Amino acid sequence: MSTVHKIGRRKTSVARVYAKPGSGAITINGRDVKEYFGTDVLVYKVNQPFILTETVGAYDVTVNVFGGGITGQAEAIRLGISRALCEINAEFRLALKPHGLLTRDSRMVERKKPGQKKARKRFQFSKR
Predict the structure, then answer these.
(1) CATH code, domain carrying 61
(2) Domain count of the chain?
(3) Which residues form a coiled coil (predicted)?
(4) Range of the domain at 53
(5) Rounded to two decimals, what is the model's pTM?
(6) pLDDT digit string (tens) for 31-81?
(7) Strand ranges for 1-128 from DSSP E
């Protein structure tokens, strides 16, 4: 089996995921996943597709990710890995779909409006 390439996105983060059969090493921008994210919560998010499909340690994953913050990047990587696993084996879709791992989260930051402080917040109103 050759390398599978998929893209995952979340907010402004874009992750290019390359998966191939191997020992389970996950490399993000040339660094190990634990070193890159630091927190166990984000490492769990990245590993979630493997846990649900019971393929922990079965595939080597190389990721190039840019844009956004670390949470958006982790969720973009998770989507990319989920899509790659579905291409490797179509039966994995049944395990991933109920947990929402194949859905692109379309929520983005609302833009700032002119004459306001932020997207929704206004400047203080003074009657007199």
Answers:
(1) 3.30.230.10
(2) 1
(3) none
(4) 4-97
(5) 0.90
(6) 999 999 999 999 999 999 999 999 998 999 999 999 999 999 999 999 999
(7) 4-10, 13-21, 26-28, 31-32, 59-66
